[in-house]
């Protein structure tokens, strides 16, 4: 800095309370130099000119130096000596360097396997300083409370705050308030715990329980997999602090998601699962019998835990072996609970996610979950993430094989979440950063990450030999005394506990385990919590439960009037204006009801009947095929201002809430979120809509491991609805098939419903049936794109006020049943191709029957329909999909069960194919003509 510049700063009035004003101006200047007046721009230009080869950017170290510089008083000597001023500037740069890079020099590894990397920016010499300057006095900026201090004291506080057991990453945050909060929270405490004796003994008790349980299980159930927490016992102390602290702040529910590592420990020592119940599972005697059940380290649990602020309800989500996939499920469950409570900020329900180090950075579902976290339809007020970082991941021997980033937590920087790295061998530091994480989340409603750097005492599981891939690491681990002993010895040396008290805690815990009991009861019994859901009404019910899904004609007209009324001055697009006018004509019987109208009336009637509706997908507001228009936009205003209107939210004062979301482009995370939401909201119609049916491929793990098997494995009921566009119209492989065969292959034990409706009225009754029946099973709708506007697929308004959902629809051609020689059975839009082919060929002896519900298969209804065709000797299944796909192979045996002994069953459709569909219109048309000819020619 020049003497002139230095003199300006030394002599100006820009100190103390004026500094924030200067900082804000400089921030504006960095973003756009023309945004400040000429005087300030000249000063800032001068500042840039005096930094050869550098150009400052917002939030860079030099900016922080500038901010601190303008806050400082003159150098203590009172001189304007350029050399002294330059050293003062370099001290501020040193402070900034520690804030940015200190985590890379922190003592985070309990194993101390490697020498710490040399970071030149953290050395005095890099900043033109030396040991000779340690006794000189400088202004310490905000680090030292805007007071002067010796360089030795400044350096000592920097090292204690940023390079001890805690490593902080927060300078990537662009929001100044959040960045300063983290900075001040840790610097004011120097990242150093100062807990009283009682709290320190509680921490010891927590990690003693964690270690003792693991060792007990290791000797009692030799060789059985449990995914031990040993090496990361401080997690239990962290969760205890999180629960107690959250309860003190008014949190009433906490939903926890985690994979295998440490899960059994969390179940017993955090949630209060009885050890005897855990032992029964180890011995193959589960306490709850389910059709299939699951392994013990996948199971969920819930409990009510006392805290200083009152009981808090904990729910540990069930989780399959796909590790991080539970994360969006948890977020969805939390969002549903918050919705039920009217908790718009997340103050009452807190999501907590526990991750493995390699899985956190490795599995794409976390990118999707983070991306959801700050969107309107999926936010939960911030999540506390804890990474159980055992530094080895799964089986690889080098972090170069597990990620391309420095830290496994770097993925969290995509949403600018602060990351608190902490050495798990310092359980007090672990508790300290847990307090900070909880307070940060409460203050800002955003995600925060704790990186618990620990180790893994055993292999990936207890039958794995870790020396095969990690010989040097496990030599270190074999010599490590354990976190509990290190902490007990420390407390004993400081006189906090007696010398033998640590061993006494172990003995007491083991004695309780021998009895199958807890050392102390951590959970409440008989506590009646508010907002609990009674699922008992949904168990033991049948899919064919008689249900009236009609809506009186007067109500349909009243709802339509509200659905088509726009705010005054609202300028509609002419296409939407015509659509709304058509809907008015539909309800009056002047036009048949199309799919968009039928669907909208189903939602409206449910909303007024006490059922919320949540609809999400990548273009759900308008509808991918521009048929829905649940959200309309003023053509003269921006939609994020007042330019959007949702008629379904404006039906009546007492209606339930309606939310339609144009979701992020990540099917896996979004579908998992909606599954979690639906599991916790049985009184809401929760729908996920694929833009094209095959897009669900990217969420197959959610379908396989949650939606279709969650009930039989875990007893979890879920009424989630999936709408998957499906139909062969010559649009190529990816825009034709929703892979109906995959869903049918997964069908068993009445686990899901698979429907392929062919009329608009069917959609109306289907959606209403999903909520009005006391039956909560996932519903998969294979929805034709073509039929959305196909006139023959539209229905009279009377079908909504007088009809019902038909699992089977008989022939509509007025044929003489006694003359029918063949019955064609089909599903979906191919029905209309068959009807047209029959008409073109003037065929009078082939009946066409539609199976609308493919599972649970309507055997009795189809058998009754086929029975009237006594002369028919042929039954032909016709489908658009290739022979090896579609429903054919999954329902052939069901069709045979409906036939008479003298009938034969054959197939008409496309030949088997490796691709879902052809990409050439000419081939598509030729294939369609060929199988229609086969279907309409007797004996063929």
TrEMBL record:
A cellular component term, taken from the record's GO annotations: oxoglutarate dehydrogenase complex
UniProt key word Isomerase: no
UniProt GO molecular function: oxoglutarate dehydrogenase (succinyl-transferring) activity; thiamine pyrophosphate binding
E.C. no: 1.2.4.2
Reaction equation(s) it catalyzes: N(6)-[(R)-lipoyl]-L-lysyl-[protein] + 2-oxoglutarate + H(+) = N(6)-[(R)-S(8)-succinyldihydrolipoyl]-L-lysyl-[protein] + CO2
Record-linked InterPro entries: 2-oxogl_dehyd_N, 2oxoglutarate_DH_E1, DH_E1, KGD_C_sf, ODO-1/KGD_C, THDP-binding, Transketolase-like_Pyr-bd
UniProt keyword annotations, A-Z: Glycolysis, Oxidoreductase, Thiamine pyrophosphate
Domain Transketolase-like pyrimidine-binding residues, every copy: 593-790
Cofactors required: thiamine diphosphate
UniProt-listed GO biological process terms: glycolytic process; tricarboxylic acid cycle
SMART domains to which the protein is assigned, alphabetical: Transket_pyr
Classification via NCBIfam families: 2oxo_dh_E1, PRK09404.1, PRK12270.1
Chain's role: E1 component of the 2-oxoglutarate dehydrogenase (OGDH) complex which catalyzes the decarboxylation of 2-oxoglutarate, the first step in the conversion of 2-oxoglutarate to succinyl-CoA and CO(2).
Known partners and oligomeric status: Homodimer. Part of the 2-oxoglutarate dehydrogenase (OGDH) complex composed of E1 (2-oxoglutarate dehydrogenase), E2 (dihydrolipoamide succinyltransferase) and E3 (dihydrolipoamide dehydrogenase); the complex contains multiple copies of the three enzymatic components (E1, E2 and E3).
Membership in a protein family: Belongs to the alpha-ketoglutarate dehydrogenase family.
Name used for this protein in its record: 2-oxoglutarate dehydrogenase E1 component
